[in-house]
Amino acid sequence: MLVPITFFLLIVFAAGQTLWFLHLRRQLRQQLQQSKMRDEAHRRFINQFIHKLATATEVAEAMSIVVSQVCEDLGAESVGIFVPLEGTANAVLQGSACTGFFPVFTVKPSLLNVKVHENARYRAAYFHAEQLRAGDGPLGQIAISREPLLWNSDPRRNKDSAQLFPREVRNIMALPLMVEQHFVGIICAVNRRRGELNPFTEEDLSSFQELSSQPALACSLVVVYADRQRQDRIRREVEFCGTLQSSMLPQVPPSWSDLSFSLYYRAAFEVSGDSYDFIPIDDDRLLIVVADAAGKGMPACLMSSMSHSFIRGTISHYTTLNEFMLNLNHLIYSNSDDAHFITMNVLLIDRRDHSCEFGCAGHTPLLLRQGDGSCRALKPQGPALGMWPNEFLDDFETVTFTFAPGMAICLFSDGFPEALNKNHEEFGLKQLQMLWQDAPRPSADAVKYMVDTVRQYRGEEPQSDDQTLFVISRTAAVSTS
Fold first, then answer.
1. So which residues are the signal peptide here (predicted)?
2. Which domain holds residue 361?
């Protein structure tokens, strides 16, 4: 008798085990199906969001898809997302996107335009300008605590906290949005829809937390996209400024009887602090300028372009080189701050008697080579333009000399003597002067020789500063013997 009973129990046990395994298998299949559905939902969301982001004219427009989807999934009346305001280190959050009639949490109703309360379009527009300070109110506290919020208007449970929320808020859920431990914003769902279960529950909060990965990822994508947009815009603006700056500089040197002019100019980056010009004062006099604005990048470019315009404006009432430099100093000082100034070499050539007058405002020296090969450097005293008001200055010192046959002149910016090799050693002014002494006679050959030599010294090191080199030579006298 015991054998049949034991056999029966074994059959019952096996059947139970089989049913349990079938139930477990069914549960695993359901979980796998749910996981696939979640993955598919994430995939659809990402594809849809990226497509929206690629075609949207505004980033906020792309975020609208996020709040709309979350609002639908939760059965909420409205959903809003706040993201950190750039440059505030998460201390201030700004409205990014909302759907439905999202309440105003940051301002008392009595202080708002009535249209903001009555019109959803006005409310949405106000939301994008709304700023939420970290630590202020229940939502602001989330930016500090990084803890979720679940609240309903049951006076028996939340009597003390009811005054913290706008009157139209019956129930609310809010979460910090995190991506790899980085806080990227706050998402807030307000009020279950009429006719649906009220209020939000702990189960709803769990669902909300599961959904939060999508808006968190969206906020992260928006930051990346906004950075890319900003970088692209800055790059385009810098390229435009560089093109505009180059167009202001004369491209063809003047042609003057027995004088030949050769020029080399190359910016280290998209825009340059170097500038040059050659401006006829009248039929017989030519003013040559080589300048270098302090600093690099856009500030130096703007300073250089401003000075270039001042030079062109001042030349129309030219009297003397000293007065010209004083007038230029006054204009630059009056239109810049203490951190910005410009160094400059100014050379006036009069072809009637081949006389030259040279002034230097804190710039590199002029290198002069006689017909017999002897060389010297000229650097009259004078501060950089824009450093001091004219009341604090004496006259700018100038030197005069005759541009004799066979003589050559070299003007340059500090990008040449300060060129660095792989050991970060400067080429040096002394070595540049020796290079000038050995340079070929024709001005074009001299420029090429000096530029190539400095480039070879630099090797694979990138050009660290703007470079301008100007060589002027006078044809040697023809011997009659």
1. none
2. 249-474
